[in-house]
Amino acid sequence: MKKFIIVGSGAGGATVARELAKKGKNVTLIEKGPYTKIKDAFKHYENAEVGVELLKTSCVGGTTLVTAGNAVRTCQEQLKNIGIDLEDHFKEIEIEMGVSTLPDSHFGPGTKLIMDKAESLGFKTQKMPKFINHETCKPCGKCTFGCPRDSKWTSRKYVDEAVDFGAKVIDNTAITEIIIKNGELRGVKSKDKEFLADCVVLSAGGIGTPRILNRSGIDAGNNLFVDTFVTVGGILGKIDFNTEVTMNALITLDDVILSPHYSGILNNKLMKFNVSKGDIIGLMIKIADEPSGTVLENSVKKYSTSNDVSLLAKGSAVAGAILTEAGVDPTTLTSTPARGAHPGGTAAIGQVIDKNLETELSNLFVADASVFPKAPGAPPVLTIVALARRLGKYLGNEF
Predict the structure, then answer these.
(1) Statement to judge: residues 174 and 256 lie in one domain
(2) For the 4Fe-4S ferredoxin-type domain, which residue ranges apply (predicted)?
(3) Model pLDDT for residues 52-76, shown as the tens digit of each residue
């Protein structure tokens, strides 16, 4: 029987592993980080300062454990234009993941106020689609720390299903490179061990995947984007916004999105006003940043272009207007530094991989945000899962 190795257990890797295991394939899923309790996922952040602060985690389930549970389709039309139609995959995974907007009972006063005032100023506002089970969710503001009630879809669910179908999971093992002999793929290696396979799928993320590819002689790591964002906020006494479901609404501009968002960084900045967490309200401004970064062996370089800065300023001005209309004292408005949560583009379709997500080395595939041809400027989980599901079904039929 052919052996498959999947490197990384986030949205892409877990999905491919599950699809292959369902078909009875011999699957081994290898994860750099540990198998941790979902509620403890915040302990495994591996943030890095790369010009903007880059947020990511390493554990079984990856960054899906600390997402806000947002379920928006991204890059669908662009991918369709290059021959990748994900419509049926989106439809099926949205049912599986329980994608829907949350009921009114799960909208706190801060989010409701932001939505109301944004609409009164003429901005397009809607509820954010979520893969959160409202029946078990009790709003607590901890989505991005690791849901204490496991009410949010995470790729751990797919990992567990893959195991039920016979897949093997190896954690705490960082894969360093691909094993190639006589020009053919033979498996992967960590620092002290080799794992043989007939087919390998890299899902180590927008930073990890290109590093493995480069060490294996495949040019990757250019055109890095991170979906740059800032959070603008200020003081609105006793709103208790910090306990609400984060990013529960979406405000769409032409090239910027805004969403209600509490950040502890704002709390630190506003302490001079002698306020508590419950007195702070904020809006995230997220852009599709230009691919101005590069992933190197021992560093990552990323800078914000003049266009990126202009878009962030535009979004911040709108956020300030909405928050002021909501009653925030404008003299307290402040912003976090620029950060990034969705690194990708570093093994892009049409540059490093083909439409089947295969590299120039036969039987070596990629399934994570590194394959995106451009920054989505919005949460990418749903699209990563759709691409990985498509790949898993392709591999299941081909091998």
Answers:
(1) no
(2) 128-157
(3) 878 788 999 999 999 999 999 999 9
